[in-house]
Design a protein that fits this description.
This protein is α+β, with helices and mostly antiparallel strands. It is built from two helices and five strands; from the N terminus they run αβββββα. It is elongated.
């Protein structure tokens, strides 16, 4: 088997295995039963398993995404905070060209090493968006 394909599969499995722990905590949250929340899972194209979730409440978006932690060839840790929680409002930035990156004021992201802490952050941001939507 091709080494590049093996490495990509190793990375995909690592990300999706980590995300499965995140997903297990998110799906038991009673907050997700709220009709104002739209949830979509992003699947890894190599192994067709979820590696991220995007929640939408009106024009607020909150995502939690698993990233690679170790080098797939050497096994060395290259990212000790492989979970990213991001929150933004759809009309909070106006990109002039598709290659621009929104500023830190427009998209707030935080990296985590802990599944529990990242899920807590995701749910706090989701609750905040719901509170804004209900007012």
């Amino acid at each position: 088997m091709n080494k590049a394909i093996d490495a990509a599969e190793v990375v995909a499995n690592e990300k999706c295995d980590l995300f499965s722990r995140i997903e297990a905590q998110i799906i038991v949250s009673k907050m997700l039963s709220n009709d104002n929340i739209e949830i979509s899972f992003e699947k890894n194209p190599i192994i067709n398993k979820p590696e991220a979730v995007l929640a939408k409440v009106l024009d607020h978006f909150i995502s939690i995404r698993a990233q690679v932690k170790t080098n797939p060839i050497s096994g060395e840790v290259i990212n000790d905070q492989p979970i990213i929680v991001s929150a933004w409002k759809s009309d909070s930035f106006n990109l002039k060209e598709s290659c621009e990156t929104p500023s830190d004021q427009e998209v707030v992201s935080k990296a985590f090493s802990s599944v529990d802490e990242s899920v807590d952050c995701f749910l706090v941001n989701l609750e905040s968006a719901l509170n804004i939507a209900n007012n």
